[in-house]
Amino acid sequence: MIELWLLFAVATILCYGTAQQFSKRGVQIIGTYQTGIVYAVASVSIQSVFWLLHPDDVRGDFWDLLTAISAGIIGALGFVFYVFALKSGKVSIVSVITAGYPAVSIVLAILLLNETLSGKELLGVMMVILAIILLSLPQREQFKSEKGSKSLMWLFWAVMSFIFWGIWAIPSKVAMQGLGESDYIFIDGLTMVLVWVPLWLTMEKGRMSRKLGELKYSGIAGILASIGTVSLFLAINNGQVSIVTPLTSIYPLITILLARLTLSERLNSLQYLAVASGIIGIVMLAS
Known about the structure:
Elements (H helix, E strand, L loop, with lengths): L3 H27 L1 H22 L8 H27 L2 H8 L3 H11 L6 H17 L17 H27 L1 H24 L7 H27 L2 H8 L3 H11 L6 H18 L1
Helix pairs in contact: 1-2, 1-9, 1-11, 2-8, 2-9, 3-7, 3-8, 4-7, 5-7, 5-10, 6-10, 6-12, 7-8, 9-10
C-alpha cells in the first residue's frame, strides 16, 4: 500500500511543476514585487483555510513558535530570491537549479535530525538526484539572460534560493513536530506576507494592477504553489526530510513534459534520461 507521505509528495510535484508554467509569465507581465504579493495572498488564504479545517490539538512552547517563524521567513526569502532569478533568467534553468536544494537538506537532516536511509532508499534518492543533475546541464548559451546579456546576477539569486530552501526544510520539520502540521502551515503563510508586503510597499509604493488578465498568471501560479506547499509540509511531517525533499524536487520534470505537450518543445537526450531516472527513483522509494 502506498504510504501517505508519498501521496503528498506526488501532489507537491504536480502542483509545483504546473505552477512553473505560469510563474515566469506573471513576472513578465506585472513584475517581481506584484507577483510576490499575489503569491503571498494566495499562500495565506489557502494555508489559513487548511488551518481552519484541520485544527491541531498540539500546543507548542515559545521556542516552537520561534522556530516556526524563523523557518517561514527562511522559506519566504528563498522564494524572494527565486522570483528575482526569474526576472532575467530562464525558468527552465532557474527552476532546475533551485530544485537542487535537497543536497543541502539531506546533509542537514542526517547531521541534525539523525535520519538514516536503507540501501534501497539511498539508491532511490541517488536516482532522483541524478535526474536533478541531468536537468541542470543546459547548453552553454542558456546561461545568458533572456535579453542576451552575459550578466549572471540571476544565477546568484538562484543559488541563494537553493541555499535558503535547503535550510528551510529542517526547521520546518522541527516546528511541525512541536506545533503540529496545521499551526505551522498557517504561520508559514503569514510569514510570506510579512516578507513580501514591505518589499512591495518600498519598491512599488503599493501599486497593483487592476486588470484580471494581467493578474491571472501569477494568481494561478500562486494557488498551485500554495497547494503544493501544504502538500510538501504534510509529506515532510509524515516522512523523512532526507527522502521527501529530493523526491519533490523533481517537479521540473513536470514543467518540461508540459512544455513538450502544450508548447511542442522537444526533449533532448539528457532530459529523457532525467525523466527515466526520476521515475525509477520514485518507484524505488514507493516500493
